[in-house]
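Hi R.,

Here's the input for the phosphoenolpyruvate complex you asked about:
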Amino acid sequence: MTHASLANTWTPHSWQQKRTLQQPTYRDAAALSGVVTALSKLPPLVVSWEVDALRERLAAAGRGEAFILQGGDCAESLDACSSDRIVSQLKILLQMSLVLTHGLRRPVVRVGRIAGQYAKPRSADTETRDGVTLPCYRGDIVNRPPFDAASREPDPELLLRGYERAALTLNFVRSLVDGGFTDLHHPEYWDLDFMKHSPKYEEYRRITDSLADSLTFFEHATGRAMADTQRIDFFASHEGLLLHYEQAQTRYIQRRGAWYNLATHLPWIGERTRGLQDGHIEYFRGIANPVAVKVGPTTDAAYLRDLCRILNPENIPGRLSLIHRLGAKNVEDKLPGLIHAIRDCGASVVWICDPMHGNTREGSTGHKTRSYDDVADEVLGFFQVHRSLGTVPGGIHVELTGDDVTECVGGTLGVTEDQVGDRYETACDPRLNRSQSLELAFDVADYLLDRTPS
Ligand code: PEP
Ligand code: CO
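And here is the predicted structure with phosphoenolpyruvate in place:
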């Protein structure tokens, strides 16, 4: 993409001239600028050809030739940068993708909420306890959770710590992907023992047996191992919230004639920071990465038209994804309007359903929770709407973990309302656990296979 059309005024830091929401107040401007300079000299985490490859994959998803599975923690924490967590996140995304491929009959492109998902938008700038008011906790890349003044002071050094953890994470992910871990013959793919007590276990077995048969058939028929024919895709994404961090990793790639954010493949703008005149849109309009914007139930047609004009003026397929988070109750009502608005202005977008953020509620234990049924209903509603309009469901965006936590209620292995606090480990929003995540993939596959004439 050339950026000849960008107003001359865009630079990686031109967002600083705009109102920019959800940024911490750093007291020591010199320390911040020292860190941003240091960060901008470090080698990038990803490279421009990978970013371009993801744009192509997203474009394919927009045409119905691939499907995006984007998932991971709501918030990563610096301490949780461990081999176990990375393996378990990768493993659950792989297992889900295999099941989804079966139902959708399309390749699935895996995109982690990983290696940079360290900053969180908050509903208030400060938090008050017992008459003491301190800055709110904005994620491990900004400040620290304990409620004391030193912990809550935004610390620019954490930008470097976050960047280093992101690099360690991606380094390990790349080794796993390049090694045997993502080979379809790897036993991790097929290990569903943890689902054994689910009433649907037999059905799950049938699906995985049929997948194994197809794999053997393909290899016999072609005389080639599947692993030789298709390298697995795995990309990184995070909310591009903390713009000093994003700015520092924004590089001009001479050969491409464009600016790239090389801290991640796919940055997105959150629901709270997508104002058309604001700093986030300003920053995002100038980078060549594929970008996504979260849109909630109040989004209207005029906004979407302007958004597409600003973020994708050349209407490049795969450049812009809309991640809607409407809620199970709203999706069938609201999504058709969004789709019509995009159709009417002829814009090219990839439709991605986030069935998590419109379904958050307070549970009986006082924890934030979500019900598996609401999550599954919203995803099925998304497929139904696209089916009825003849448009393309491009992917799903899910907060999940490969661990057996009890943060969301329901699923066939049944986390009950009163179990919600038992293993509540999220650094922010409640995530689907391992069996709930896989069950979601099976439910989608089931739904699609039932309705696809064979
Ligand atoms: C998130 O993805 O964790 C998030 C904060 O989402 P949204 O911007 O859609 O509220
Ligand atoms: Co969240």
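One thing worth noting: The radius of gyration is 21 Å.

Cheers,
M.
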